[in-house]
Amino acid sequence: MTPVTMIQQWAKDAKQTRSEVWDRMDSRQLTLLDQTIRPYLPSSYPPHPTDPLFGDIAEGTALPPAAHLVYFPSAKSEQSLSPDGYHAAGTPPAPFNPLRVGSAAQLVSSIEDISVKERADADPLVFVKFLRETRNELGLSMVERRQLVYMKPVEVQRKIIMLFRYSALTWNSHRIHYDHNYACNIENHPGLLVHGPLTCTLLLQLLQANMPKGYVAKSFEYRAISPMYCQQSLTLNGRWSQRSEGSEAADGSRICELWSTDNEGGITMKGTATVVPVADK
Predict the structure, then answer these.
(1) pLDDT per residue over 40-75, tens digit each?
(2) Domain interval for residue 156
(3) Cα distance between residue 240 and residue 214, in whole Å
């Protein structure tokens, strides 16, 4: 059996499986995320309401964009992890259904598609598309689609503490984010890699800090362009599209282009956010 046929057989079985994970939108977890990234946010970013007794973010507070990424940790045993430490394994219509601190939520994950790209001078690449649906007691809250590329493993002043804490918050044991020796000497990177979801989170916080009054984020499509390393400076950028500056769409929506750059000005991630007005309650 060739490597491609073995992968195809695995794909046939994998596409029939899905996982369900429940988690409580714990205020302490959101507070720890806020303390991790707030030193890097604009001073105009508004504070969250807090519990007067414990000081954590108050229950009932809507999770800011991308904050759900620090919930639903993948509780894998150390024995089930690959050598590099990684596990092997939408937008709702108005009036929206945000996840709220203190509520119970369910994450349903499944594999939508698996494809193989053969290469003449190297091992094949395996593209796996994941569908992740998050629900609460009111129904669907958000839909995410992720595409990961897997390949044969190689024979490891972004702030190191920030990377370590974000790895802990997301229960991410991938060693390229915290093990400098592994990242540089085993996988031949020039330094520790910044998490893609962390950059995504920071870009959305930039949007949140500059959100027009009465608007909320409806969707965000983004793509990682190149790696961001720990020793590089990270710059967050954003601009409203020409459509927004001239005239709004019929539904009042506005478009914001967001991107991050490294110390040489190279784009490391870019995305497009759509924000829409919220009717007064």
Answers:
(1) 888 888 899 999 988 999 999 999 999 999 999 887
(2) 3-277
(3) 16
Beta bridge partners of 256: 240, 273
Q: Which helix (H) or strand (E) holds 268?
A: strand 267-277
Residues recorded for the chain: 281
| Domain CATH for 14 | 3.10.129.10
Q: Identify the pLDDT of residue 150.
A: 87
pLDDT in tens, 203-253: 999 999 899 999 999 999 999 999 999 888 888 999 998 764 444 677 789
Contact 56, 50 (CB under 8 A): yes
As separate numbers, helices (DSSP H) first and strands (DSSP E) second, the chain gives 6, 8
10 CA to centre of own chain: 27
Closest CA to 189 of 197, 201, 178, 198: 178
Structural domain tally of the chain?
Answer: 1
What separation in angstroms does the CA of 120 have from each of 7, 124, 142, 155, 234?
Answer: 17, 9, 40, 20, 36
The one-letter amino acid code at 197 reads: P
Q: Rounded CA gap, 23 and 262, in Å?
A: 35
* pLDDT of res. 94: 43
Percent of the chain with pLDDT over 70: 88
The reported pLDDT for the residue numbered 4 is 52
CA 164 to centroid of chain Cα atoms: 16
Beta carbons within 10 angstroms of residue 168's beta carbon = 15
Cβ-contact 195, 158 below 8 angstroms:
no
The pTM of this model reads 0.57
